[in-house]
Amino acid sequence: MNEKIKKLDCAVNSAAVFRELRSDDIINSLWSCLDVMTSDDTAQKVYAYSRFVSKLYKKNINLSEYILKAVLEDENFYIVGKAQGKCFDDIIEECVENELKIFQELSQISSDEIKAEIGYDGFLPSWKTSEIDFVSEYRSRIENIGRFGYGMYSKYFMFIVRDGKVTPVKHPDAQKLSDLYGYERERTAVINNTLALLSGRPAQNVLLYGDAGTGKSSTVKAIANEYASKGLRVIEVTKEQLRDIPHIIDSISKNPLKFILFIDDLSFTAGEDCFGALKATLEGSVSARADNIAIYATSNRRHLVKESFSDREGDDIHRNDTIQELISLSARFGLTVNFSKPDKKSYINIVSELARKNGIEMDENELSVKAEAFALRGSGRSARTAKQFVNQLVNEK
């Protein structure tokens, strides 16, 4: 076993393409464990072994599956180049195949092999291994790179911008399309546009506008969840971060995945300088929007710039030009979808569907009367109000 460890240690340290995998927390912990096996201190070996297993258990009970996942998600020059259609010299291709076989061998180390080196007669936890062809799996990943991506975009599908950098959301909203009721026509328009983006067909920038609580933001989040497995990623950008959009576009424009830049609850006051940044990005900027990116924005306003009477009567000589400037932003979205406040019938239908899904058994007339009363006491009819009302019924069960 000691000779096998030494040989593997040298082999992994020789990695050039997958060199960063050596610093993976669990793989590094495995090496620390293997290094300690040359010691005569049984207690030290037990501690290092159990420490590694504890880390592994938090991710996967199967060592082979964990190492394969780390290999497939590694962002290195080779997979980035392959995603962009680049061809590599045979020397590099040979290097990649050899390194994949090294990590495959590493993934086959069994808990029984290491336990035998420890020489401890008490209980020690175990892990599983699997026979996996790393070369075949990696080639398959490259062939389907448009669905899976690489690096952090293969690990996560929802992102925010923090300090100018795209950062993953590790626990995104789990909203599903199947949980949303009403607004089928409006939602279908947004879904069809998203499917166009995913298929490589021309997709529009989308403005979802209308009354509060009608499901605009929920629609975008549900679409993100629904189509993540097909290669869709969503990056949420706040109004204050609009100046970062050109930089974000540059960083993902050559990525094989498809991206929605999501701006929630968007509105401006006249004169805000970030207004111009978004307007330039939507149309006519020097840095053209890439084919794998669409901008989705939600707003309670059809015209995104708040306009006062003083704006219409101001001292601008060309008053009509000023007005057109204010309303031009929303016109630059190719698809605008109106989520208006539901009428009574639509509201009751949403309530009924939610009640049925949550196992609420109540006479339709009684349900309707109580739902209307709840809306009157609250903020009026909306999909959000319907959900709040049904949640109250669930809690009262």
Overview of the molecule:
The chain is of the alpha/beta class and 397 residues long. The chain folds into three domains: 143 residues, no CATH class; 182 residues, Rossmann fold (3-Layer(aba) Sandwich); 53 residues. The protein contains 19 helices and nine strands. A seven-stranded mixed sheet has the order 2-1-4-5-7-3-9, sandwiched between helices. It has a two-stranded parallel sheet with strand order 6-8. It is globular, with a radius of gyration of 28 Å. The mean pLDDT is 87.
Give the radius of gyration.
28 Å
Mean pLDDT: 87
How many domains?
3
For the secondary structure, the number of strands is 9
Distance between the termini: 61 Å
Query: Per DSSP, what share of the residues sits in E-state strands of 2 or more residues?
Result: 5-15%
Return the CATH class of the largest domain.
Answer: Alpha Beta
Q: What does the overall shape look like?
A: globular
